[in-house]
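User: quick one, sequence for these tokens?
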């Protein structure tokens, strides 16, 4: 189970921090990621963090602005979003899969949290 929190409305240039609490699976063996979907658009990957060493991946559109991190002791993953732009608006989903390349069809999904940037 994945439960997101931390979405909301913010003005352009502002910041938000999303959190995702994981339970019910072996967190340390899973790639954790954030994906988003804007109205009328396809879902896209935003960031991912590998199990083990914690290497990270980012979409080009968020590099330098977003940071994914995790607290393995709490089975939590975070997405710090800075310098937000209106085009970052969308519903953000936490996802978990053993393979970072398969997050679009991840084994576990959260319910999503809305981020609106105006």
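Assistant:
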């Amino acid at each position: 189970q994945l439960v997101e929190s931390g979405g909301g409305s913010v003005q352009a240039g502002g910041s938000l921090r999303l959190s995702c609490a994981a339970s019910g699976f072996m967190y340390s063996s899973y790639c954790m990621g954030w994906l988003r979907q804007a109205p009328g658009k396809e879902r896209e990957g935003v960031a991912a963090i590998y199990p083990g060493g914690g290497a990270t991946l980012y979409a080009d559109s968020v590099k330098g602005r977003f940071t994914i991190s995790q607290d393995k002791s709490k089975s939590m993953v975070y997405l710090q979003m800075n310098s937000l732009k209106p085009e970052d608006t969308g519903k953000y989903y936490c996802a978990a899969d053993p393979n970072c390349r398969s997050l679009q069809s991840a084994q576990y999904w959260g319910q999503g949290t809305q981020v609106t940037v105006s």
